[in-house]
Amino acid sequence: MPRCCLSRAFTVSELRKKLRSKKYPFDTIDAVIANFKSRGLLNDGFYAESFSRSRWLTSTWGPRRIKQALHQKGVPEAEVDQATRRVFQDGDDYGKEATFGMSEASMDHLFAQASKQWQRAQSLTLESRRARMVRWLQYRGFNWAVTNAVIRKLEAQHPPP
């Protein structure tokens, strides 16, 4: 096995595609994938959760955008749903009900990031700031309920002068 395939985490689909591009026989590819899975070196569920958590914490991507990226990487739907649920709904709020499909800790993290964006746009009119925040949140994959809740909280905590 070439070292290039072990330099980063892969989904089963990505590894299969990479090995096919290197012209390995199909039975060899299947054997390598089965071997890696049995040894815990290849796990789409773990990959999906790590990817989701990374994109959420470093890029503030929302569930919809993360799901889209994982689907493009060939992660099965069940693994994608489970991973995003763990990252956005479970959080550190054991026993608390998720609001808008997000835990309280996730909403707090999102609000902190959105507040930075809101402050950067303080020279704009209120309508322009709102429109900018809607675009920022929607682009990152948050639904309208989350977007609306964040904007209302921003306006309440940072009223116009």
From TrEMBL:
Its main location: cytoplasm. InterPro entries: RecX_HTH_2nd, RecX_HTH_3rd, Regulatory_RecX, WH-like_DNA-bd_sf. One of its GO terms (cellular component) is cytoplasm. GO terms for biological process: regulation of DNA repair. The keyword Nucleotide-binding does not apply. It is found in: Cytoplasm. Keywords: Cytoplasm. Residues 107-151 form the RecX third three-helical domain. Residues 43-83 form the RecX second three-helical domain. Belongs to the RecX family. This is Regulatory protein RecX. It comes from Zea mays.
